[in-house]
UniProtKB/TrEMBL annotation:
It comes from Dictyostelium purpureum (Slime mold). FMN binds at residues 104-106, 133, 155, 183, 254, 276, 309-313, 332-333. This is FMN hydroxy acid dehydrogenase domain-containing protein. Transmembrane segments: none annotated. PANTHER family: 2-HYDROXYACID OXIDASE 1 (PTHR10578:SF107), S -2-HYDROXY-ACID OXIDASE-RELATED (PTHR10578). Residues 25-383 form the FMN hydroxy acid dehydrogenase domain.
Length: 387
């Protein structure tokens, strides 16, 4: 079957959800995130595509992240004035055009020569935030230089050598990053079978740019060995207090999957929680993120921002996450496919598609603004049969 993107070139979806007749950009040919994934698969070397696409082990959590969204049903509402649906929102005082933000993902120059810089440009142009990975192929300095004073958020992997991590925190704070996202679900890297088979390594000429000065910038022994050598599997909740003590930036904890850990995060001073199973790349057969969100939301009770990632491929997925208590979402692979297909324009296309779909689904459920969205828009058979 020819799986070239559908040629609906006469129909573009823009930020305000208007359908127009202008074919302005080749990226407009893509009408779904799935089409962009298929195009990326054709364009990227197998080793790179497999690294980006894979989950761990049998990849059941990877699949479940997407499937669980499909099982949740939304309630359509009629005759509500939805002529002015807005996806605008705010996080830590920063205005955003959308609750869709960009997840940290490593080594973006494997997807496109401009890598992290193009992703950042797209995020800024769309009015949202990119989270830069510790393991980026562009340095925190170069990303900051490119950003007109607001490079977005920074994701931290805490290394065994705390001095390396502390120095990096100081660097990003000085460079104007607005928040620190500390990833806590990676004491070791999950077993991604394809990476073993492909003997994954960074292609020649690419480096982990934040660690060049420490000679920690290549992956000669492979990714698993690098992570096993560098990352501290002895990290505990107490270390969150250490991190809080060395920075004035908001600290978000990424990788919370149960109410108990949400309670620990609150107790130890987290400024935000990211419900995440690392895109199904760590503990296989753990639940989907959307399934665990309601219980975590109950613990957080709106005290600090709550964000979800994992499996978001449609605007309706985002609406469901917001309904179950998330303030915003992060998207990972959709951005990877966008960057691979068309650099900055590809990432913009992904943001446009997902935000337009979100806007439509808000209109169909009678929601005019992000803060109006509650669990009432989720179909619950028992509730509706009783009415
Ligand atoms: C190729 C790839 C690289 C990633 N790199 C990082 C990383 O460096 N740091 C991190 O905290 N999470 C990383 N993640 C996890 C993402 O931040 C995010 O949790 C996940 O991709 C969300 O799921 P989704 O891809 O289904 O949207 C990575 C994910 C992928 C797919
Ligand atoms: C370089 C990797 C450790 C980045 C990552 O978090 C991932 O591949 O899931």
């Amino acid at each position: 079957m020819n799986s070239a993107p559908a040629k609906i070139i006469n129909t573009t979806i823009d930020k305000s959800n208007q359908f127009t007749n202008k074919a302005t950009n080749p990226m407009d040919a893509f009408v779904t995130v799935a089409e962009m994934k298929e195009e990326a698969r054709k364009k990227l070397p197998k080793m790179v595509y497999d690294y980006y696409a894979s989950g761990s082990n049998d990849q059941s959590t990877l699949a479940e992240n997407e499937n669980a969204f499909t099982r949740i049903k939304l309630v359509p509402r009629s005759l509500v004035n939805v002529s002015k649906v807005s996806t605008k929102t705010k996080i830590y005082g920063q205005d955003l055009s959308t609750p869709i933000m960009i997840a940290p993902w490593a080594m973006q120059r494997m997807a496109h020569p401009n890598g992290e810089l193009d992703t950042l440009e797209a995020a800024k142009e769309f009015g949202t935030i990119m989270t830069l990975s510790s393991l980026s192929t562009t340095s925190v300095e170069d990303v900051s230089k490119h950003s007109n004073g607001n490079p977005g958020w920074f994701q931290l992997y805490v290394f065994k050598d705390r001095k390396v991590s502390e120095d990096l925190v100081k660097r990003v704070e000085k460079l104007g990053y607005k928040a620190l996202v500390v990833t806590v679900d990676t004491p070791f890297l999950g077993k991604r079978d394809a990476d073993y088979k492909n003997q994954f390594k960074l292609p020649n000429g690419l480096f982990l740019k934040n660690f060049e000065h420490l000679l920690l910038s290549n992956l000669e022994g492979g990714l698993n060995q690098y992570m096993a050598t560098m990352i501290d599997p002895g990290l505990t909740w107490k270390d969150l207090e250490w991190l809080r003590s060395i920075t004035t930036l908001p600290v978000l904890v990424k990788g919370v999957m149960c109410p108990q850990d949400a309670a620990e995060a609150l107790k130890h001073g987290a400024d935000g929680i990211i419900v995440s199973n690392h895109g199904g790349r760590q503990l296989d057969t753990s639940p989907s993120t959307i399934e665990v969100l309601p219980a975590i939301s109950k613990v957080v009770q709106g005290k600090i921002p709550l964000i979800l990632d994992g499996g978001i491929r449609r605007g309706t997925d985002i609406l469901k996450a917001l309904a179950f208590g998330a303030n915003a979402v992060l998207i990972g692979r959709p951005v990877i496919w966008g960057l691979s297909c068309g650099g900055k324009d590809g990432v913009l296309r992904v943001l446009n598609l997902l935000n337009s779909e979100l806007q439509l689904s808000m209109a169909f459920t009678g929601m005019n603004s992000i803060h109006e969205i509650t669990e009432n828009i989720i179909w619950d058979q028992n509730k509706y049969i009783k009415l």
